[in-house]
């Protein structure tokens, strides 16, 4: 058989066998995206198994809407699976989710950071524990409803590209994916736009066709992060001082958990010019505020770097980087730092509101090259700050 024949013999998921002989585990959150993934693969003749994760207390979840993995979502995933005629399992991951995601979320706030638990959940639960469960079920791959694209590079390994619809692209939240995980994962929705996904859900007769997208973090009711953190880590709600960048006391606050770097509204200080949160000093419980220009950063440090783009040249590499999920990527140059697992980003234009605990996610064109947690930033003048 020639190389060309081998290529044509691959099924839509990239395996050289019939769809019916290819087992796929679909991570089903109960939302429209993962449900359509299961529907598409079932229609194409694959051996599909749906798995939904119970990540936290069911009783608290049932009464909650607008977040993933709640009781209603588990029910919806089960109903979708029955409609499609595929086996469906609910796995109790509550204890590992608490340890791997919720506890660190709370600890990050205590440190004065602004965490993104969805990234940790992908890294430590979905793409580690669930992926291993898929392997235990002899699945050829694990498929999810993320809006990203996976392609094969010239080296035969998978590359991760942004979703075709820039409004839905979720690559920012997947930067911790390792090469081995990426080779095993599949993302069938990466080339689609959301209206087409909802149309397919209607075509498949799924009850979730009109279900709203998740908005909140699944374990944070109504987006009230502070109340969740204060219950888990009461010390984070201890009052402290609000000071300016020179250290002058301007007022008091009810806990650093109520603030994030770059915040302008709700600071509670009257001033002749707008004030922004410049820095959170969790050790002294101080909230440092200042004018917008005090937020300007041109150098950003990354820790826990996950890199998929080959070796970073000693002279650095021109890239684009997203410093928050909802912000556009900006031009930068990345350098490998001396400490293992760290890197330095030099931004070509100053950015404002660079917050520790957020992620710096690096791209080369449409390809995701990797990223890390924002560990520190430097001012335009070059003085290093504990971001």
From TrEMBL:
Classification via Gene3D superfamilies: Adenine nucleotide alpha hydrolases-like domains, HUPs, Translation factors
A cellular component annotation (GO) from this entry: cytoplasm
Boundaries of every tRNA-specific 2-thiouridylase MnmA-like central domain copy: 237-290
Subcellular locations according to the entry: Cytoplasm
EC main group: transferase
One Gene Ontology term of the molecular function aspect: tRNA binding
Keywords noted in UniProt: ATP-binding, Cytoplasm, Disulfide bond, Nucleotide-binding, RNA-binding, Transferase, tRNA processing, tRNA-binding
Start and end residues of each tRNA-specific 2-thiouridylase MnmA-like C-terminal domain: 302-374
InterPro entries listed in its UniProt record: MnmA-like, MnmA-like_C, MnmA-like_central, MnmA-like_central_sf, Rossmann-like_a/b/a_fold
Keyword RNA-binding annotated: yes
Enzyme Commission no: 2.8.1.13
Pfam families with a match to the protein in the record: tRNA_Me_trans, tRNA_Me_trans_C, tRNA_Me_trans_M
Entry-linked PANTHER family: MITOCHONDRIAL TRNA-SPECIFIC 2-THIOURIDYLASE 1, TRNA 5-METHYLAMINOMETHYL-2-THIOURIDYLATE -METHYLTRANSFERASE
Family: Belongs to the MnmA/TRMU family.
Protein name: tRNA-specific 2-thiouridylase MnmA
Organism from which the protein derives: Ferrovibrio terrae
Taxonomic lineage of the native organism: Bacteria, Pseudomonadati, Pseudomonadota, Alphaproteobacteria, Rhodospirillales
């Amino acid at each position: 058989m020639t190389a060309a024949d081998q290529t044509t013999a691959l099924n839509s998921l990239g395996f050289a066998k019939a769809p019916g002989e290819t087992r796929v585990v679909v991570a089903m959150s109960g939302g429209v995206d993962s449900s359509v993934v299961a529907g598409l693969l079932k229609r194409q003749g694959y051996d599909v198994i749906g798995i939904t994760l119970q990540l936290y207390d069911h009783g608290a979840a049932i009464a909650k809407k607008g977040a993933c993995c709640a009781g209603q979502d588990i029910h919806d995933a089960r109903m979708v699976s029955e409609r499609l005629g595929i086996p469906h399992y609910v796995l109790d991951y509550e204890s590992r989710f608490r340890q791997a995601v919720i506890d660190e979320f709370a600890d990050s706030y205590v440190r004065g950071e602004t965490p993104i638990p969805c990234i940790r959940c992908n890294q430590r639960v979905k793409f580690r524990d669930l992926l291993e469960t898929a392997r235990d079920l002899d699945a050829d791959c694990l498929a999810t409803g993320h809006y990203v694209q996976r392609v094969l590079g010239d080296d035969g390994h998978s590359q991760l590209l942004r979703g075709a619809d820039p409004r839905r692209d979720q690559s920012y939240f997947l930067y911790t994916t390792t090469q081995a995980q990426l080779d095993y994962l599949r993302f069938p929705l990466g080339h689609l736009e959301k209206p087409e996904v909802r149309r397919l859900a209607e075509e498949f007769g799924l009850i979730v066709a009109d279900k709203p997208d998740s908005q909140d973090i699944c374990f944070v009711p109504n987006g009230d992060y502070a109340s969740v953190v204060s219950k888990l880590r009461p010390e984070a709600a201890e009052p402290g001082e609000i000071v300016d960048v020179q250290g002058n006391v301007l007022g008091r606050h009810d806990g650093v958990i109520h603030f994030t770097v770059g915040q302008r509204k709700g600071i509670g200080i009257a001033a002749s010019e707008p004030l922004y949160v410049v820095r959170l000093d969790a050790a002294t419980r101080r909230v440092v505020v200042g004018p917008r220009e005090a937020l300007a950063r041109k150098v950003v440090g990354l820790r826990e770097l996950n890199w998929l783009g080959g070796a970073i040249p000693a002279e650095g590499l021109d890239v684009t980087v997203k410093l928050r999920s909802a912000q556009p990527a900006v031009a930068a140059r990345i350098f490998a730092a001396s400490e293992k697992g760290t890197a330095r980003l030099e931004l070509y234009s100053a950015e404002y509101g660079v917050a520790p605990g957020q992620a710096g996610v690096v791209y080369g064109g449409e390809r995701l090259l990797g990223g890390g947690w924002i560990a520190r930033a430097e001012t335009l003048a070059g003085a290093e700050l504990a971001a």
